[in-house]
Amino acid sequence: MDLEVSEMFKVLAVETRVRILDLLKTRGPLGAKEIARQMGITAAAASQHLKILRQSGLVRSERQGYWIPYAINEEALEKYRRQLTEVCTCGCQCPGKWQKQELEDADLEALKKYEKDLQEELKVVRQRIKEKSK
User: For burial by CB atoms within 10 Å, which of 68, 99, 104, 120 has the most?
Assistant: First the structure.
């Protein structure tokens, strides 16, 4: 499904949905019951949020017997990231990456946090490579 940018923001305006996406991003495909358990919400609530995320195209699911794993739709997220970048006013043209001047001006604590964030992102990338190599 192809959402307008405003519709995507409506879907992501609910914190629980953003947290579900983050969980799927870090943990990989999960079933609704496991998502509910890890989020501390009911299975019914998780299912409703997953339904909206699936309808929006931000997550995908494919039945595997009795289990239905939900996963992030990387292509949809990338599309919306590009659309957001087009309207971004900070001038970065590349969310998540610091410009050279920002790196030069950052204090030690900010640089350490940035390094930690990059290491976490690298872990996720390596995991995705491992999954796709199977």
Answer: 68
